Amino acid sequence: MKHMKSLIAAAVLATASLGSTAAFAADISNNPQALAVLDNTANFGSSFLLNNQNNTFADKFRFAITTVDHDFDAIVSSITRNASTGLDITGLSLFSNAGSLITSGTMESTGAVDIWSLRADNLDVGSYYLQVSGKMVSGTGGSFGGTVMLAPVPEPETYGMMLAGLGVLGFLARRRKAAKQA
């Protein structure tokens, strides 16, 4: 009888531990997506289905810089009726293709309207990904959307040529002024 009670207790404990794994959050991240960068801008986003309450995501959006260094700016947002429906964006980060964190975004607003922004200066030529992290706060569906902007950084030689051009224009303007006075 004593062994039977121990066996029943072990079975109850095992069943309880199996049931408790369902309480852990599942990762519902979407597969990494390529950003379709056109004229140095791109839009991105993801949607999540019903019945994912407390599940988390970390969606990745890949892009490459193929010419000169670029400045990078991004914004992402999610809008719901109130803070207890849809999803909550918990992070916006920029990583190198190797997975090294370059910079993290700044939360601009949270609640019914989540807004995050991010900026990085002088990104070298190479491959990168933007990661949007969050959690589903209810059993309703949810989505987020964002935009990125890449701005080429002029190379030092460009500044030299610009200054030389301004110098030539100044010389010509001065010479023209002197000719009118004579």
TrEMBL record:
- Whether Signal counts among this entry's keywords is yes
Q: Where is the Ice-binding protein C-terminal domain?
A: 152-176
Q: Which InterPro entries match?
A: Ice-binding_C
Signal peptide positions (record): 1-25
User: What is this protein's name?
Assistant: PEP-CTERM sorting domain-containing protein
Entries under Pfam families matching the protein: PEP-CTERM
Keywords from the named record = Signal
Phylogenetic classification of the source organism? Bacteria, Pseudomonadati, Pseudomonadota, Betaproteobacteria, Burkholderiales
